Amino acid sequence: MFARLLPRRLPRLSPLSSRPISTTVPKRSDALFIHRDTTYNNPQIAFKFNPQNLKRAEEIISHYPPQYKKAAVIPLLDLGQRQNKGWTSISVMNYVAEILELPPMRVYEVATFYTMFNREPIGTNFVQVCTTTPCMLMGSTDILKTTCAHLGGLKPGETTKDGKFTVIEVECQGACSNAPMMAINDDFYEDLTTETTKAILDAFSRGEKPKPGPQSSRQTSENSAGLTALTSKPYGPGEFCLPEFQ
């Protein structure tokens, strides 16, 4: 019955009404996910935790039930990366797999997924310039250009010839209210200008460590325009309660 109501032939679409197929060129990642043996990164290069880090690794593993100690893979990889001068080699991964009694592939999967693990050697000072939307709106493009130019004309992903600095471009690092910002090693430097960026890099170049946090006059993440709330004496229960509770 319903078949009788359907047209015997569907109307032919005109060329203008058809939807063309479009493709985009795939963008190559800046990270190599397949390991390639090199003279500085191959399984024959031995790696073991030093006594201090081995004690720390055992303490970390003790936080998990024995059957779930594999959950310590991320903190142990981080510990290995710190001992290995800031990067995670194939030997570090294999050693972590051995300690946690995991197939090495399970550790490789973690190390290649999280961008916190550097698969190649980096400089003494690891500079990560945030260029996501809030930072971009506050001038992070100039901060990245200034950083690269001030370090001898680097491009993101490169290391200075003296091995002191590696610069990369990253997405949000969670300090949006203090944009623009960059992270150097474990510290954040916020409210940057081109002048303060150069001063920070010069200090690290001299072997000094500038004070982290906002490089402006404000404290932490307070409103840069000044106090806009709670500007008068509060009212309510706290004002009229007994003296011992005030």
From TrEMBL:
Listed Polar residues bias regions: 214-231
Entries under Gene3D superfamilies matching the protein: Glutaredoxin, NADH-quinone oxidoreductase subunit E
Molecular function as annotated in GO: 2 iron, 2 sulfur cluster binding; metal ion binding; NADH dehydrogenase (ubiquinone) activity; oxidoreductase activity
Amino acids binding [2Fe-2S] cluster: C130, C135, C172, C176
Source organism superkingdom: Eukaryota
Co-factor binding comment: Binds 1 [2Fe-2S] cluster.
CC terms in the record's Gene Ontology section: catalytic complex; membrane protein complex; mitochondrial inner membrane
The keyword Metal-binding is annotated on this UniProt entry: yes
GO biological process, one term: mitochondrial electron transport, NADH to ubiquinone
Record key words, sorted: 2Fe-2S, Iron, Iron-sulfur, Metal-binding, NAD, Translocase
Cofactor: [2Fe-2S] cluster
Region Disordered, residue ranges: 204-246
Protein name: Thioredoxin-like [2Fe-2S] ferredoxin-domain-containing protein
Organism: Mycena alexandri
